[in-house]
Give the backbone structure.
Amino acid sequence: MTLSRRDFVRLTAGTGALATIGQFGRTAAIAAPSGSYRAMVGIFLFGGNDGWNMVIPTDERHAAYQAARGAVALPRAALTPLTNTSYALHPAMAALRPIWDEGALSLVLNTGTLFAPLTKATYESRTDLRPSNLMSHSDEQDHWQGLNARQASSDGFLGRIADRMPGGRLPALMSLSGSTLAVLGKQAMPLVVPASGLPMRLGYNAADGMRAQAQDLLTRGSGGPILGSVASTLSTTYDQAVLANSLLSGTSSVSRYFVDPATRKPLTSDLAMQLLGVARMIEARGTLGHGRQAFFVSQGGFDHHASQVVANSPATGTHAGMLATVAQAMAAFYRAMQGLGLGANVTAFTMSDFGRTYLSNAQYGTDHAWGNNHLVVGGDVAKGGIFGRYPDPVLGGADDITREGRFIPGVAQEEYLGAIARWHGVSDADMPYVFPNWSTWSTGGRGPLALFRS
């Protein structure tokens, strides 16, 4: 059996801690000047979140919103209005309203995968400028995480940032949602913490003879220079799992923030527990020697082709429950960062496969679409920040590539995520490395959104 580097990634992921494997030629372009700690936390909403019911216009556009969305449209009276804006959040996301009022929440409207700037006319006439396989779950998840709009990716933007990030006792890039593409670098690898439970000294169950061969590589030093170097890190990987276990299972000052504000009972959702784990790792930043950290967490189940809302009660239903989970977890995480004195040093942001059709279907659901709305939470975001343009809500209108409300994004992923990467400390010289299509989105009047105050 030949043991490939990919096999070894799977093996070490099975231990609960994916070590920094193969970091050859790595630089430290992202430093921590003057003790200025920063962390970015990506929250992926798998399945395609309906951002059109997450951020809703409250001005004259609401009538067009109701007319186009049909059975899933939220009545204006039920919404959670955002002060001094013409937008509101889904009523289930009321936990984020105080954070908006504090100036720590920004909205990014109609963003998504773009290979080049598109209008409806160029979309129809220039198929060579379209992203590949639009509205496919796997491809769009790959596009969001790898940021190659017309080809598959073998590494992700967080992993490429980690390639330029100094490490510590544990890798400074961590995933609490598996070894997903976003966190795989060209050289660096993340610490992968199980979504449930704690890191343990376990091999990869499906590997059969793989672990034995890894141990053989350790003993005999066989397998060539690359695999030999990979094999030599296996025991370090287990040691990292033990350290991560101690940080996640010990007492922590941040746990008290992860409670339901109404009942004061602990939040138990998978997303809340992932963000609690992130908060614990941030709390331990000094012990770990990290001046920069990056994290990936997720929540699944957003592919609501049916039963997104309850008939005749669109403010309730499956989607409402999931958005409440997202809002409560994000709010708790932000309060925990404030408790650590790091409210302005940590930024959490949402991503998702794609948006949903503006037009609802006969099953009280929505179908795959393109552009979407997203949330950014952190004490350094621009107060009252609303970025991008809400699309023309008329079905078949200027922004709709079909007559069902599949909107061409006005903001590219690079402009959105690039702003966060730059805030995090990625240098201008490294932006093309992190974002392969950066030259398209940093010229001609395009560039990172002005998401932050500093």
Summary: Residues 1-8, 10-34, 200-211 have pLDDT under 50 and may be disordered. The CA atoms of residues 125 and 325 lie 42 Å apart. The domain at 42-198+265-441 is CATH 3.40.720 (Alkaline Phosphatase, subunit A). The radius of gyration is 22 Å.
